[in-house]
Amino acid sequence: MTYQEALRYGQIRLIAAGVLEVESDAWLLMSAVCRIDRNFYYVYGNEEMIKEQEKEYMALLEKRAERIPLQYITGEQDFMGLNFKVNPGVLIPRQDTETLVEEVLKAVTPGMEVLDLCTGSGCIAVSLAKFVPGAKVQGVDISPEALKVSEENARRNGVNVHFFLSDMFGQVEGKFDVIVSNPPYIPTGEIQGLMPEVKDFEPHLALDGKEDGLWFYWILAGEGKKYLKPKGTLMVEIGCDQGKDVSRIFKNNGYCDIKVIKDLAGLDRVVTGKDERHV
Description:
- By secondary structure, the chain is an alpha/beta fold.
- The chain folds into two domains: 3-66; 76-278, Rossmann fold (3-Layer(aba) Sandwich).
- 41% of the residues lie in helices and 20% in strands.
- The protein contains eleven helices and nine strands.
- It has helices at 3-16, 22-34, 38-44, 51-65, 70-74, 95-107, 123-131, 144-156, 196-199, 215-224, 243-252, and strands at residues 76-79, 82-85, 113-117, 136-141, 162-165, 176-181, 228-237, 255-262, 268-275.
- The longest helix is centred in the first third of the chain and has 15 residues, at 51-65.
């Protein structure tokens, strides 16, 4: 089977399985197995694949056809131009969350102390430490498996982040200039309606925002004030229909200068606010 034939077969196989991004997924699996780029493919596409690579490629296609997320198959995901290890113990970093990181980067300067709650893969904390050298970044998660991944991602990207086990603010000490979080925010009843890649393979611990999806925002806004320095800021990712509700939660808990920031698709994605007692 040639590279071109294999790629076409992969696309057809994934179409039959109901996968949406068939062209990119088939190509990314091939490039991962064969360690080739587009230039190689265009020049040598009519040549035969190495048999061992063909066999491995077919095996990975079957995994993807089972709707296992591509990132869990390849074991990695790019985020903010950095490469992150991922496995089924952590939520796959998404482009939506880059909007949150970009907003935090506007507020953080070297020497500031930053806390990332529900850190998961560590993509937020590691990105902040990478792009703001000198920032003192900590990340917490309730999952020991997630912390193993986040620590590996800090090493992979050459940054120093202090990760530790904590159920929200349970084991947190000190005060911070910025508290950031991408908490679980999908209402429990909506999880089974998500794509198979999400509902069947990503950790529900990182998805389930309880009955109305807002449970963790009440904790973040309510308890977060105890851990903010004067003029400190709380910054969170939200579901695209949660801007008004999360803004109300911030207001009810004494925050001011509340802002809702949209993502690249024009959807509400981030809410920020300051503790009014400190402004």
